[in-house]
Write a structure and sequence with these properties.
The protein contains seven helices and three strands; from the N terminus they run αααααααβββ. It has 272 residues and is mainly α.
């Protein structure tokens, strides 16, 4: 079974600590400077803290070797964590939409430049986290870490929405321009829809793995070619493949010459 190495564990811890720190900064700044965008983004980061904890927990579980109750190991723990992160993302997106709509229905308030700076720093910080976490996740083929990277990407959108909205509102307030003060909630609604889309894609993908859906037809065709590359294999009566953690489990029923002795075994191939 795949083993989550020290690099993936370190990346998960960095994500957790960063999310916790950003949550406190955004909530404090949003409350002090009366910025609904920063408060909503802070709540979003609070959800990320929960998601990061779930990622670390899934890594610990997936490292357990196969046992009598789990003969195929514990690789699907990462898919469960991915599904949980998708739920957190979706809930955060719905909250941001609801909060933005409420802001549109209230009188516009002045925007602090410090709130804009805090949102900009958050976006830059999240971009660095996304690049780092994504690179480590791809290198180690860690599903939960890639889900965390997708979460960082969604945070970048949310923070950029806050930057654009606060920037438009600040400029409008500076030059006394009407309607521009509502740039923050409008941008928040648009980006929240994008975050919701990411959550849906993640949920569908993890659910397909948990429900043991077949891999894509293109992958099955590649496995079929591998089996048929052996001259002893005369035909393939059935071929199925499913993801299990960082592995692909293949079930095949093949036809061999009658004079051959057949020894059954389970085959596992690393996921490409």
């Amino acid at each position: 079974m795949p083993f989550e190495g020290p690099k993936t564990i370190l990346a998960a811890w960095i994500s957790l600590i960063s999310n916790l720190f950003l949550t406190l900064i955004k909530l404090f700044s949003g409350t002090f400077f009366h910025s609904t965008a920063l408060i909503a983004d802070g709540v979003h980061n609070g959800g990320d803290v929960i998601a990061s904890i779930a990622t670390l927990g899934s890594m610990k579980v997936s490292n357990h070797p196969a046992d009598r109750e789990h003969p195929y190991g514990h690789g699907k723990a990462e898919d469960i964590a991915t599904a949980f992160i998708a739920i957190v993302l979706g809930a955060a997106a719905l909250f941001l939409i609801f909060d933005a709509v409420k802001t549109l229905l209230r009188p516009a308030v002045s925007v602090s430049l410090w709130a804009l700076i805090a949102a900009l720093i958050s976006a830059l910080w999240k971009w660095v986290l996304y690049v780092y976490t994504s690179a480590v996740g791809k290198q180690n083929k860690s599903k939960s870490l890639m889900a965390t990277a997708s979460d960082h990407l969604a945070d970048i959108y949310a923070s950029l929405a806050a930057v654009v909205g606060l920037g438009v509102a600040w400029i409008g307030d500076w030059f006394n321009l009407p309607y521009t003060k509502y740039g923050d909630p409008v941008a928040g609604i648009i980006v929240s829809i994008l975050i919701l889309r990411i959550a849906i894609v993640m949920a569908v993908k993890s659910t397909n793995v948990l429900m043991e859906s077949n891999v894509k037809e293109e992958q099955l065709e590649e496995y079929r070619k591998v089996f048929l590359s052996f001259p002893e294999v005369k035909r393939i009566d059935r071929l199925r493949a499913r993801e299990h953690g960082n592995y692909i489990l293949i079930d095949a029923r093949i036809g061999l010459p009658a004079n051959m002795t057949i020894r059954h075994r389970v085959m596992t191939l690393p996921r490409q």
